[in-house]
Give the backbone structure.
Amino acid sequence: MSETSIAPPENMVAVYQRPDALTHVDTHYCPGCTHGIANRLVAEVIDELGVRERTIGVAPVGCSVFVYNYFNFDCAEAAHGRAPAMATGIKRVLTEHVVFTYQGDGDLAAIGMAEILHAAGRGENITTVFINNAIYGMTGGQMAPTTLPGQKTSSSPFGRDVELTGYPMKMAELLAEIDGAAYVVRRSLHNPAEIRKARKALVTAFRAQLAGLGFSMVELLSTCPTNWGMTPEEALKWVKEYMVPIFPLGDYKVGEAVAAMK
């Protein structure tokens, strides 16, 4: 079939295209992983706000380690868990830049727990995109701080025993209690409706930074079909049926100044 025969009609209008802030490269994410959706949403929001030329992303170790390959703007790579600390330094020096961290749960809620808490406590004017898939993805599927009670992982083959290892860390609820946090919400990526809500939340989080309102975080419930031992379809269903009840979606802190933004 020739290119001419499959060309779209002249009156056809494009309703979607690749964001300028997203590069043209093959993905390293596993099939069905929603990291790719999160990357696209961040890129779309950066484009919408018109800040690509002055945006800096900071990623640590984990599945997010290669995000600098996907984003068409400056990025830095921090040591495991230290993205908020690096982002703090960058933002304080380059105050007019938009600075965000892109972190997984094993990174943010384990080795990076102190960094994220203190960044929020200081009210650092940065944005954090927190990918919660309830497991250590890149390093072999071990139990993470967010692993659900009874969930099987490579390091908890009989399921997470809360009497032995405690309960999942609920980061949105925790950070919402810190005075320096201006905007803290939890969304999900398991269906189109929730993805649209996630995008709106990211717009608000970045706008809060542009307005100088302090620390913001958008937590995104995500899938890890490979380490969960599921198909992509099963993983999406698992998020809805098992993760959302443990990590309820919603707005955990919307500061008065954020709420007043138009």
